[in-house]
Amino acid sequence: MNFNKVKRNSGAAMLISVVFFLFISLAIISGLVSSTVREFRNASVDLNSKKSYFLAESGSEDALYRILNSMAIEASETITLDSNSTTTTITSIGSSAKQITSLGDVGNLQRKTNVVLSAGVGVSFSYGVQVGQGGLEMSNSSKVIGNTYSNGNIIGTNSARIQGTAIVSGPTGIIDGMDVDGDAWSYTIRGTSTVGGNATHSVLQNTVVTGNVAADSISNCTIGGTVKYDTRSSCTVTGAVTTPNPDVFVSADILPLPISEAQIDVWESEAVSGGTLGSQTFSSGTRNMGPKKINGNLIMSNDAELVVTGILWVTGEIKLSNTAIIRLSSSFGGNSGVVMAGIDESSTAGYIEISNSVQALGSGSIGSYIMLLSQREMGSTAIKTSNSSTAAILYAGEGEIEIDNSAALKEVTANKLKITNSATVTYESGLANNNFFSGPSGSWTVQSWGETQ
C-alpha cells in the first residue's frame, strides 16, 4: 500500500506571515492612533486657549461697562465662568487715562488683553480771561492774575490791573486806562495806562511803559525802554530811539472761544441719557445728582450741598446763595465736570447767579474743576457772581458775565465781561489742558484694545 508523506511543517510559514501581518497592522494602527491623539490634544489646547482669550475679553468688557456707567469696581476683580477665572486689574495712568488688564486662565493656558482709556472731552483754557467781541471792562481794584485775550476793547478804571500779558485782537482794538504788568498788544493803548513789559501797537497815548515800544504814533507817554516810532509828541524816553519805525503794526488774530456748539450739544445728550427731573429747590442737606437734565430751575441756599456725579443740564436758571456748596464727586479724580444752564439761541433762559460765600468746587484732586456754563445770549447778564463767592470756571460764550465784590475765580470766558470791586481771577496753568469727564457714554474713550500675551 502506497501512502503519501505528510508535511508536518507546512503551517509554520503561514504563522510567520500572520505574525508579520499582525505587527505591521499594529504599527499602522499605532501610527494612526498616535496622530489622532496628537490632533485631539492640539485641538483641546487650541480650544482652551480660545476659551482663555474670550474669558479675558469678558473681563475687559465687564470692567469697561462698569467704568463707562460709573458703577462700583475694585482695582482688581476676579470673574469666574464655567469653572474658569479671569483677573482684571485697573490702573490709572496720570489723571486722564486708565488701563484695563485682564488675564484669562483655562487649564493653565493664559491669555491677556489690554485696554487703554483716555478721559473724555479736552478743553484748553490758555488765558486767565478770554473775551469775545463784547470786550472787557474792569474797575475799582479788580484784578486778573494771568494773561488776558480779548476780541473786543479792554477798558480799565480806578486801579484795574492785569498781572500778565494783555492782548486785544483786530485792526482797531483799544486798551484804555489799564495797568498791565506784562506786555501789551493792541492797535491803540491810551488813557493813563501803564505797561510793565513791552508795548506793541500803532497808537500810544497817555501811557507809562516800563519796557520797549514799537508804534506808529506816541504822545504824552513815559517810556523806560527803547522806542521805535513814526510820530512823537510830549513823550519822555529813557532808552534808545529809532525813527522812523521800520516795523508795521500787525494786529493779533481774532480767536474763537474754546467750546463749540457741537460740544455743548454732546453734553446735553449725555445729561438727557441719565433721565429728566423737574425744578430742584433745597436749602439743607446733601444730595447726589447726575447725569441729569433738569427741566426747570436749580435753586440752592443756606447749607445745601450738591454732589455732582455726572453732567447736569438745567434748562431754566441756576441760583446758588448763602454758603451753599456745589462740588464734583470724588469719582471724577483729576478730571473736571460741567453744570450747564439755558437753551441754545435763548436770550431769557440760562441765567446763573452765585452769591454770598457760595463754593463751586472740583473733586478734591489736583487738576479737577467744576465749570458753570450759561447758554444765554447777549441782551442781559448770563452769569453774575458776587460777595466772596468762589468758583473754578465760568463760561458764557454768547453772553455777559459780571464779577463783583471780592469774588474769586480760576478762569472766565465770555462774549462780554465786567469785573469790579476787588474781584479777582487767578489763572492756574492746569487749565491749559483740561479734561472734562462728561457723562456715562462720553466720560472715557477707548484708545487701544488688544492682546498682549
TrEMBL record:
The chain crosses the membrane at residues 12-33. Keywords: Membrane, Transmembrane, Transmembrane helix. This is Type 4 fimbrial biogenesis protein PilX N-terminal domain-containing protein. It comes from Candidatus Nomurabacteria bacterium GW2011_GWA1_37_20.
